[in-house]
Amino acid sequence: MHTGIFLGTAASWIATVAAASVNLHRKATAATGTAGCGMTHWFNGITQYYGLESGGVDRSYSIHVPSDYNETKPYPLVFGFHGSSSIGLFFEADTGLSESKYSADKIMLYPNGLGGAWAGANYSEASVPEDLGFVSDLLAEVRANYCIDDSRIYATGMSIGGGFVDTIACSEVGGEFAAFAAGSGSFYTDDSGVSGCTPVRSPMPMLEIHGGSDPDVHYEGGPGEGGMEPAIPDWLSWWAQRNNCPNQTMENLYNGDVQHYVWECNGVGGVLQHWKVDDMGHCWASTTLDFSEIAAGQGPTPIDASTIVMNFFDQFTKP
Ligand SMILES: *[C@@H]1O[C@H](CO)[C@@H](O)[C@H](O)[C@H]1NC(C)=O
Ligand SMILES: *[C@@H]1O[C@H](CO)[C@@H](O)[C@H](O)[C@H]1NC(C)=O
Ligand SMILES: *[C@@H]1O[C@H](CO)[C@@H](O)[C@H](O)[C@H]1NC(C)=O
């Protein structure tokens, strides 16, 4: 349940006033957009922080709309889920996903997990139904307040946030999304084989980027910080079956350090993709040094996850 009550900082109080004035500025709803089309927003281009009650619990998120936001034009919406012991604002800063080179024409939404994590790990504060309910409530909130292209809603995330992206893809609310992408994902809720997940649609576009030298979420799987994790090749093979992708090709890049796997699913190429970076640790891949790479004690990587993920999303529209 969402209340539309905005809690927290002075910035969000200003946003509350802005939101309250929104109905006064309501114009005709664009043909293909959501109910929020026609609502005026202030401080576009500046990330804003909001509270949202979900399942009786106070939750929060931040949102970034393009600086030249056009209130009658339906925009793609991208959810970005942070890793453990983090918040959405850190994920936003680390990935750079609110920069116009990635999202000049998209609305970015960064939800905050309870206790700095997402459902699925044995240390998670929220249950899977609670966090999936939060996703549903966020969708309702954003659709009601912003002009969203309902056929172009996406989710990406890092580490446990990447694992939660997979949890969404395997759930009913996952049917609302056009494509998913995980970086260094810990797939706690999808570790039991092809039947461990029943997406509401097939194929469900999925991309994963993982370090072959990840010391936290091992490429080979096994016990992770929050429970058992599948080997990445096994997890990919399950998605290949769910998505009906019999054909796979692999391209060696950057002197063999990077392997790009592409599956053809139901005759459509690229619906399932994987990038393995052999000497990469647990981080968000970036060609310019980001905080997660510093934390992982490594330098920049030859590939840029934010570019790859946004280009992947651009290829898919929800049928
Ligand atoms: C805003 O978007 C609408 C719908 O796509 C379009 O018709 C209009 O020209 C746009 N306005 C501006 C100022 O770009
Ligand atoms: C969570 O799972 C991991 C790996 O299976 C295990 O080592 C750890 O003790 C578990 N933690 C809790 C709190 O159950
Ligand atoms: C994909 O695999 C099928 C079955 O193995 C084969 O018949 C088909 O020719 C393959 N397609 C491509 C494009 O390789």
TrEMBL record:
Q: Which GO terms describe its molecular function?
A: feruloyl esterase activity
Reactions it catalyzes? feruloyl-polysaccharide + H2O = ferulate + polysaccharide
- Fetch the Gene3D superfamilies from UniProt: alpha/beta hydrolase
The signal peptide here is 1-19
The top EC class, named as a word, is hydrolase
Any one GO CC term of this protein is:
extracellular region
Give the subcellular location: Secreted
Please give the biological process terms from Gene Ontology that the record holds: xylan catabolic process
Q: Which UniProt keywords apply?
A: Carbohydrate metabolism, Hydrolase, Polysaccharide degradation, Secreted, Signal, Xylan degradation
The reply on keyword Secreted is yes
Question: Could you tell me the EC number(s) of this protein?
Answer: 3.1.1.73
Query: Which PANTHER family does the annotation name?
Result: FERULOYL ESTERASE C-RELATED (PTHR38050:SF2), PTHR38050
Know the name of this protein?
feruloyl esterase
Q: Which organism is it from?
A: Mycena maculata
